[in-house]
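note to self: the first set is below, dont mix up w the second
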Amino acid sequence: MFAGVLLFVDGVLGVLKGIAGIASNDVYTRINDYVFKFSVTSWGWIHLILGVVLILVGWGILKGAAWARGAGVVLASLNLIANFMWLPYTPVWAIVTIAIDVFVIWALCTDRSDRDDWARSG
């Protein structure tokens, strides 16, 4: 349940980041000499799409779907990488999101609940 709630919240934060980036290029400061330099609108779409998918997978985890555990680890990892690349734009927000992703990956990988419960409910 911990991982599902965190993944859902992480998705909502991603959607908010995405909407802010798409709505106005002036919301986030651009870094001039940065290797992963995309337009803020491009980053907004990336965060929006990842956020929506994270919400769906977080909901799947909360419902007990067996597919959602593996998808949650993969998507939290992708979101972690995207936020690492997003660090120069909003360092505090990116670090908070990276920490949430680390906790989600940890919670999904160390869950010792009965595997039959997951198979029956998914």
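second set (the one i keep forgetting abt)
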Amino acid sequence: MHSEVVASRSADQRDSSRESRNGTPQLDAVSLAIIQQLQEDGRRPYAAIGKAVGLSEAAVRQRVQKLLDQGVMQIVAVTDPLTVGFRRQAMVGVNVAGDVESIAEALTAMSEVEYVVMTAGSFDILAEIVCEDDDHLLDVINKRIRALPGVRSTESFVYLKLKKQTYMWGTR
């Protein structure tokens, strides 16, 4: 991988990404390699990343900042919700009558909602909710989600046990 990255770096050192036709950044091999390094360890020093991808520490710092600014990635601490006081998690399927986008936007504004995706299939939207307890979950679903104009129905899938949660899908 290192030789591929170095070759790519010399061919296109000026610009780590360009926008594609749909407006999303197209990342070069060096930026993808930096992302992979950070997926393995989000606290990895820029100097170590630079050594792995063939850039200086300063160049890695600039690339990382650009990736953050573009919204390509985030660097966060991922916790186990149970250990930080959130005893109930659920995936909620939402069926919508009318504008799916407006319901998705309303869900993203709720602090308990961690993940929102518009889907094709049985549900128009899937939303992951993290709550303190069952009463909190009931309040969010019953009084806030179901109360949104255009929400036709919901179906809740309460998590009994989290077996795997990873953000190591790599890059393509």
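remember for set 2: The CA atoms of residues 120 and 126 lie 10 Å apart.
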